From TrEMBL:
PANTHER family: 1-ACYL-SN-GLYCEROL-3-PHOSPHATE ACYLTRANSFERASE (PTHR10434)
Enzyme class, spelled out: transferase
Protein name: 1-acyl-sn-glycerol-3-phosphate acyltransferase
Any single GO CC term annotated in Swiss-Prot or TrEMBL for this entry: plasma membrane
Biological process per Gene Ontology, one example term: phosphatidic acid biosynthetic process
Swiss-Prot/TrEMBL keywords: Acyltransferase, Transferase
Residue ranges occupied by any Phospholipid/glycerol acyltransferase domain in the UniProt entry: 52-162
Pfam family of the protein (one): Acyltransferase
CDD domains: LPLAT_AGPAT-like
GO molecular function: 1-acylglycerol-3-phosphate O-acyltransferase activity
Top-level taxon of the source organism: Bacteria
EC number: 2.3.1.51
SUPFAM superfamilies per record: Glycerol-3-phosphate (1)-acyltransferase
Length: 244
């Protein structure tokens, strides 16, 4: 794979480990599928090789484990740094997940994400920045920035059924409940060399937001399901994930 035409400022990091992710993935998949009725739709849209960004909506705590468990490829996800504490934090790091400070620009998270894509792996990002309604009404600029840096295709993902209506953001659906994961056709933004202007990143993020909303409508029509609505205890609104 040829090297992405980006500024080399991130080449000093190896990126998150891949071995633990590959080893743990079958265990997580068995656990998820044994607990809920998982229905995966259109996962053929995920390229079998090469860098790819999976841009998912975010309604509940189950979204991350579900996507990482059943996607066609091992997935490194960007996860809020508050999760990286104690045994859970050690497990997440061992599984190659990436901590991010959502309330400030986080160069370490940006470098780790770029390293994942540079080596041709899959990266999951939640453009909304926090669990909530999951409707893509507002998204952060991080997904557009990473796509512009690397030229990696962006595959839209919609999770449905991972939180019940009116339930809190930390809840999970009852055992054996159906949960749906719907993938959409990839789109590629024009790879842009450094420096990437803020107005260009914002413009591309706005375009992606409309595109993600369109995929959400398709996913709801396909499955006959809707979103759960606002969370009972919404998280504080985070700051930008990344800025150019």
């Amino acid at each position: 794979m040829s090297e992405p035409a980006v500024t080399p400022y991130w080449h000093d990091v190896p990126g998150p480990p891949r071995r633990g992710l590959v080893a743990s993935r079958p265990v997580v998949e068995r656990l998820v599928r044994a607990t809920w009725k998982v229905r995966v739709h259109d996962d053929h849209h995920v390229p079998s090789t090469g860098p790819v960004i999976l841009a998912s909506n975010h309604v509940g705590i189950l979204d991350g484990p579900l996507l990482c468990a059943v996607a066609r490829r091992p997935v490194h996800a960007i996860v809020k740094k508050e999760m990286f504490r104690g045994a859970v934090g050690r497990a997440l790091r061992g599984m190659g997940q990436i901590p991010v400070d959502r309330r400030a620009t986080d160069p370490a998270a940006v470098k780790a994400a770029l390293a994942v894509l540079h080596r041709g792996d899959a990266l999951a990002i939640y453009p909304e920045g926090a669990r909530g309604a999951g409707d893509f009404t507002v998204i952060k600029s991080g997904v557009a920035y990473l796509a512009l840096c690397t030229g990696a295709p962006v595959v839209p993902v919609v999770c449905l059924g991972t939180r019940l209506s009116g339930a809190s953001i930390g809840s999970v659906p009852p055992a054996r409940s159906p949960v749906d994961l719907v993938f959409g056709p990839p789109v590629t933004l024009p790879r842009t060399d450094w420096p990437r202007r803020q107005d260009v990143v914002r413009e591309q993020a706005q375009w992606l937001q409309k595109w993600l909303v369109g995929h959400l409508r398709y996913a709801c029509e396909l499955t006959g399901r809707g979103l759960p609505g606002p969370a009972a205890r919404p998280e504080p609104e985070p700051g930008p994930v990344v800025t150019p």
